[in-house]
């Protein structure tokens, strides 16, 4: 039993024997529940406090608000913020920053900016933290003009950019693949007396690696060390990934081993990058060695680890190994997702083992999952390649039963399946339907119908 469960148990016993807990006791328990993301239980306890006449202080309100935001409950967080005001508690800059940051992280930029405006109307002066939240949000959505407006507003309020602001801007330039502008921003930052930190260097290392400039990334890491800044797990992961992208797995392994020697323990993402690199290089046995290593000494494999390995095994036709990994994943009690199932379904369809793929597909609903349009496309293509266009068409028409309507790709796959199985009339009818739905024939479908036109001397509008 965890400490929070124990605390709840003690609280229950206190209430039974008539001992009334004070506001501090209840606030402590609410804080613990929020930290463990048990937000529903925290809200229930909060409501119970109110019903029994307790008056939570601003700290309790802010704790619950933070818990709602951390669990992504943006609508409830906004309602809770309004409730605070209605009950006589004026939310401070921290409360507003928490909700605005939550909006930004969910891509709800207009809502964030609207709340920001309301905050200023209430006379609350923005600080660097809230500006950084907003600038990060607008940069993530590629809204450079809005970012510039916010930066100018900061300057007008005599708020100087800090290292966090500069890192956000550097990261935005790197994501736009304009490293030269990122470097210019670093120079501008230095002129303001702010030196790059490990986050700055990690952003630059990652950007150079993704552009194939791994040797330059290595130079940046050397510069870090000369400045007395040790690379962290994010820096090492970026460098390892850079070598993997170049298919230089021995170099990736060297960096991977170096991070442990330097006292930086590899995280599960570090292992996943290495395992993915080995799988892409068709060196799945070495990938499995790493998998066994983490199974024995940690960190715990996650669903990404299993999915990467299953993909690697399927691509090499080692379906029994992929299935074994899938069963191990089920036993590990990881939360299943559609991706891992789709990888396995695709592997069996590609191998022509459509019945096994069908069985896996039917397991989705049993495990509370719904197939997506990509999963359906794989199954439809699998049936068509197996010479079963009628069954493929049944699955195509049943997509709506899972609230999954065919997209352009599904239509094209089905049409090509009909054509290759000599169902030219059905293929033509479905082409007309596809066009009426606003979709277009892809290159393969168009080529097939051009051939049909040439053979039959009939005109078909594509």
From TrEMBL:
From the UniProt record, list the coiled-coil ranges.
none
Q: Which UniProt keywords apply?
A: Repeat
Show the GO cellular component annotation of the record.
mitochondrion
Q: Which GO terms describe its molecular function?
A: mRNA binding
Please, which domain of life does this record's source organism belong to?
Eukaryota
Residues in PPR repeats: 22-56, 57-91, 92-126, 127-161, 162-196, 197-231, 232-266, 267-301, 302-336, 337-371, 372-406, 407-441
One GO BP on record is: RNA processing
Query: What is stated as this protein's family in its record?
Result: Belongs to the PPR family. P subfamily.
Known PANTHER family for this protein? Answer: MITOCHONDRIAL GROUP I INTRON SPLICING FACTOR CCM1-RELATED, PENTATRICOPEPTIDE REPEAT-CONTAINING PROTEIN PET309, MITOCHONDRIAL
What is the protein's name according to its record? Pentacotripeptide-repeat region of PRORP domain-containing protein
Q: Which organism is it from?
A: Gossypium tomentosum (Hawaiian cotton)
């Amino acid at each position: 039993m965890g400490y929070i469960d124990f605390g709840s148990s003690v609280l229950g016993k206190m209430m039974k024997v008539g001992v009334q807990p004070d506001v501090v006791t209840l606030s402590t328990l609410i804080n613990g529940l929020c930290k463990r993301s048990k937000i529903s239980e925290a809200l229930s306890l909060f409501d119970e406090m109110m019903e029994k006449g307790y008056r939570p202080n601003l700290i309790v309100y802010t704790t619950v608000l933070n818990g709602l935001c951390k669990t992504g409950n943006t609508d409830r967080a906004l309602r809770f913020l309004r409730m605070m005001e209605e009950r006589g508690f004026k939310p401070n800059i921290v409360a507003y920053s928490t909700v605005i940051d939550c909006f930004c992280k969910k891509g709800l930029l207009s809502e964030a900016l609207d709340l920001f405006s309301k905050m200023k109307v209430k006379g609350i002066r923005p600080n660097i933290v809230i500006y950084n939240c907003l600038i990060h949000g607008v940069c993530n959505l590629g809204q450079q003009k809005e970012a510039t407006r916010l930066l100018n507003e900061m300057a007008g309020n005599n708020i100087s950019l800090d290292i966090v602001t500069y890192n956000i801007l550097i990261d935005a330039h790197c994501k736009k693949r304009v490293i030269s502008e990122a470097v210019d921003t670093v120079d501008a930052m230095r002129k303001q007396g702010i030196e790059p930190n490990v986050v700055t260097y990690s952003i630059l290392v990652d950007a150079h690696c993704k552009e194939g400039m791994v040797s330059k990334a290595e130079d940046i890491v050397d510069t870090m060390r000369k400045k007395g800044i040790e690379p962290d797990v994010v820096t090492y992961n970026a460098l390892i990934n850079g070598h993997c992208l170049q298919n230089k797995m021995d170099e990736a392994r060297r960096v991977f081993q170096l991070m442990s020697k330097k006292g930086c323990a590899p995280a599960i993402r570090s292992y996943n990058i290495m395992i993915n690199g080995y799988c892409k290089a068709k060196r799945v046995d070495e990938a499995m060695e790493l998998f066994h290593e983490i199974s024995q000494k940690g960190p715990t494999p996650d669903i990404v680890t299993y999915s990467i390995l299953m993909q690697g095994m399927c691509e090499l036709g080692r379906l029994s190994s992929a299935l074994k990994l899938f069963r191990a994943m089920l036993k590990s009690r990881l939360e299943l997702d559609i991706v891992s199932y789709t990888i396995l379904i695709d592997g069996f369809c590609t191998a022509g083992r459509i019945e096994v793929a069908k069985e896996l597909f039917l397991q989705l609903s049993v495990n509370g999952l719904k197939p997506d349009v990509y999963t359906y496309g794989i199954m439809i293509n699998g049936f068509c390649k197996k010479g079963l266009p009628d069954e493929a068409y049944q699955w195509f028409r049943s997509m709506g039963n899972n609230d999954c309507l065919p997209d352009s790709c599904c239509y094209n796959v089905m049409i090509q399946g009909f054509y290759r199985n000599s169902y030219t009339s059905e293929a033509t009818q479905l082409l007309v339907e596809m066009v009426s739905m606003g979709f277009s024939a892809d290159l393969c479908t168009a080529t097939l119908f051009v051939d049909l036109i040439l053979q039959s001397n009939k005109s078909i509008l594509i």
